[in-house]
Design brief:
This protein is 75% helix and 0% strand. It is mostly helical and 421 residues long. Residues 1-47 and 410-421 have low confidence and may be disordered.
Amino acid sequence: MKKHSARVAPLSACNSPVLTLTKVEGEERPREPPGPAEAQAPAGTEAGGRTNRHCWTCSQKRLRKVFWGVAVVFCVCASWAGSTQLARLTFKTFDAPFTLTWFATNWNFLFFPLYYAGHVCKSTEKQSVKQRYRECCRFFGDNGLTLKVFFTKAAPFGVLWTLTNYLYLHAIKKINATDASVLFCCNKAFVFLLSWIVLRDRFMGVRIVAAILAIAGIVMMTYADGFHSHSVIGIALVVGSASMSALYKVLFKLLLGSAKFGEAALFLSILGVFNVLFITCIPVILYFTRVEYWNSFDDIPWGNLCGFSILLLTFNVVLNFGIAVTYPTLMSLGIVLSVPVNAVVDHYTSQIVFNGVRVIAIIIIGLGFLLLLLPEEWDVWLIKLLTRLKVRKKEEAAESSGDLGTGPQSRSRRARPSFAR
């Protein structure tokens, strides 16, 4: 049980020791028996002090989570918008979206080394790389990572990962970054629909409305450019990328369940290994068939390729491990906020036209995405909030009527002694 609990600890920066230290100091501090003057002190004073300390510690913890949430939102927004814009810039001199996908996916191998570095820095029970690897391999079953498990539980996700990124990058060649980023937000609606059908998740009317808004936004986005071939193909590619992303998430939950931080890092590193071993042949074939061809390796913009890979790696690291320091909802907001960032950049760097249909489509898809961020018990919380507001209004009304009722009586009582005299 000790080892099992340590699996969450390495990157769990929100486990603040302040609350524990406060309790220990309150319990272990030597205290003299109360004297005669101290014996009648109320027993609730110490309890009140502990309660105040507890509330102060909780507020500090929440403020810390909100602060980290703002930082995570900024990182998600900047890395996602930056990678999209840099990819679009790269295609002006290096028209090879699949090669760029393959190159960036190879960097997934760094996930587990980065996680182990965090484990060494944060964990009190440090383990060797081999011990940590074996413990994380239990995620795949009692036998660990075998050849059969690799091809049945890792390889399909490697294919979906490659398809998701390739379709998105290929779409950027045909449509602007603003349209691509806002259409990719529909993947959350697709996740809900697939989870409802495949995983039998709870039905929520508000999420059905969000899915309808997402589909309506896709249709309006297609209509915004007048159903031109390039825009229709680009929109279809982004919708396909969002669908592959949703299928990846739902299948992961169906086949593998939930993963700890170390298990998720190992899994993503395995995807990088799969990419190197089995996907490398495809860029080679595309090169020799001149589908994705370049004259010499000196013509490759290595700075753009490495910059895109670093930004995409940062985006995936923050999105997968940011839950250790903040709330998941705040991380999702970073993806939505990348849309206006891309819109501003596109306005100054491309010939995008923000007509009424496009703006309405962006707003509709963004609204659907925000509706999907509502928790499952949002209706219960809303009813409780409305009930509290009604009770408070009744109490205020009763207090005001009580003040009005006691006012004349108090004045008459004060006036009576003067007449008696």
